[in-house]
Amino acid sequence: MACVKGAGLVSEVFEDAAEVDDRLSGMSAIGHVRYGTSGGGGVENIQPFMFRLSSGPFAIAHNGNIVNADVLKDQLCREGAIFGSSSDTEVIAHLIHRSGRGSRHGMLDALSYAMNRLDGAVSLLVLVPGAIYACRDRYGFRPLSYGRYEDGYVFASETCALEALGIYDIHDVEPGEIVSVDKDGIHSFRFTENSLSKMCAMEYIYFARTDSTIEGTCVHTFRKNSGRILYEESPADADMVIAVPDSGLSAAIGYAEAGGLPVEMGLVKNRYVGRTFIQPSQEMRESGVRMKLSPLKSVIRGKRLVLIDDSIVRGTTSLKIVRMLREAGAAEIHVRISSPMITSPCFYGVDISSTKELLCVGKTVDEACKAIEADSLAFISEEGLLRAGSRSDLCMACFNKKYPTNLYDNKI
Ligand code: SF4
Fold first, then answer.
1. Buried residues in 115-135 as b, exposed as e (16+ CB within 10 A)
2. Residues 180 and 86 occupy one common structural domain
3. Do 131 and 220 lie in a common domain?
4. Smallest CA separation from ligand 1 atom 4, residue
5. In a mutational test of the pocket of ligand 1, which residue from 136, 200, 355, 399 has the highest number of ligand atoms less than 8 Å from its CB?
6. Which tens digits make up the pLDDT trace of 281-333?
């Protein structure tokens, strides 16, 4: 089993295609792009992780955050385990090892054992010689989909990755399910009957690409519906609707359609700069906003704008954008947000790490409006958000503190 990984963009790490082809020949592979929320950003935390048992090697790629990782780590260390990284993912490998069934044939039992002890968000791929296992925690916080491709199968966090390969018959790994693929084909198992559907609302609101489908709901449709409902709940007297690209675009279309307003391109995105939300420091985030977005003066000068964005986390981006639009000549700026107020951290793999960093904590909507210097501000209601997806079963803990799991030693 061979592994190529490194820090940087995928295109940088896999720069030399010939070398990668040479080193990564074979019938099956797993890959991972890290969005670090637990364990820090050190190179030792880059996935996939590879391990070697007496029965053979295996590799793991994990999306999500394990809430009881520290509790399990303490327990495993007391029993003699040694950890080579600070990532919560290594706990999974130790549990697989501890199960005493880490062989190729026993991996299913080993994974069931591990998944039944882990709490939190775990969408997982495990590679062993001759087989791949895919599983989702019993709440299904993070998506994981798959489809048939030529003589095999492809798994991915987002369906847009599968559609890019021409795969349109797409299935979800269900909460509490393990799907395995080997030379005999594809098989499904359940590691628990005690499963719930608690997909992360932020996957629909912000994370997923607009052309993805999550658990049967198209992300664009969800966002557009949320824009429509946002208009019904909080109409604004304005000349046009503009969006913070890209994740605000679909909601802006929905808002504009519902209000009979034109939707315009008031902000242009520089496609060569990454998302500000995941820049590691406040300073980098602040300079990132200006590099990432430019106002289109000819469109917005003298106009009363409705500005649609997907969320307000720290408020840094919103304040910068409102100031930028005013400098560019906007007459009024009415901000409408297609998520409820974020007032609590996430423990399931989204970088909303500290309550004190969140703009909306301890503030009324009017106070938040003043803080971002807008003329008016409104957020979609929780009920409206559920209606947007025709769902009754999303995780919305960062809006309402109703965490679906025990939080163990994690503090709000
Ligand atoms: S707390 Fe918020 S960001 Fe975290 S999983 Fe739940 S909805 Fe998603």
1. bebbbbbbbbbbbbeebbbbb
2. yes
3. no
4. 346
5. 200
6. 556 555 666 678 999 999 999 999 999 999 999 998 999 999 999 999 999 99
